[in-house]
Design brief:
Blueprint lengths: L1 H27 L2 E5 L9 E3 L3 E7 L7 E8 L11 E2 L8 E9 L14 E5 L11 E8 L5 E2 L5 E2 L7 E4 L3 H24 L1
């Protein structure tokens, strides 16, 4: 029985060590997320006409400037490899790029935070974030165009950071029909009096 307890203790210690190293590695570069204009919560799904904003927490930055990329989500399961070109035309084609972004525009944990920063509007016109689609936001702290796992961060390393959709006909038609029906109901009641 003593040998079993020793093995379980060793498994626990090793598990905690692996968890600590993984959590420490993830927190080195900080967190970046898609959000709405208020920036209080992460939002992952947007429809045509909505604006996509970005916010961060504990972003690593020595010179207070970074580049922010919006790229098409790569192949499934997605992975971001250390040293990978961010706007690689095969794995992560670039949609938008913002250069020299001040850390205070996106890092919600900073004193003097002015964000969240507007990334773009969902639509299918030039300069907009296309719909439908799946995208990642990459915070390139050292502004070198490469993903460096120790200093750069991506909103999700294994799945898309946010998705854009074109609303289905029923999503628009049903509320419009309900309002029209109410209008006709009250109009008929008024005419009967």
């Amino acid at each position: 029985m003593n040998r079993y307890k020793e093995k379980m203790a060793m498994v626990f210690v090793l598990s905690m060590a692996v968890f600590t190293v993984m959590a420490g590695t993830a927190m080195v570069a900080g967190i970046i997320q898609s959000t709405d204009s208020i920036g209080n919560q992460e939002i992952n799904d947007f429809i045509v006409g909505q604006s996509v904003y970005v916010r961060g927490f504990d972003l690593v930055d020595s010179d207070d400037k970074a580049d922010i990329y919006v790229v098409i989500d790569g192949s499934k399961p997605e992975s971001w490899d250390d040293g990978e070109v961010i706007d690689n035309s095969t794995d992560h084609p670039m949609v938008l790029l913002y250069t020299d972004v001040a850390r205070s525009e996106v890092d919600k944990g900073l004193t003097g935070y002015t964000g969240p920063k507007l990334l773009g509007v969902v639509g299918n016109n030039p300069g907009e974030i296309p719909a439908p689609g799946s995208y990642d936001i990459v915070y390139d702290r050292d502004q070198d165009g490469y993903f460096n796992a120790s200093v750069d961060c991506v909103d999700y390393g294994v799945c898309s950071g946010f998705n854009t959709e074109i609303p289905e006909f029923a999503t628009i038609a049903l509320p419009a029909l309900a309002v029209l029906g109410l209008f006709m109901f009250f109009n008929r009641r008024r005419n009967q009096k």
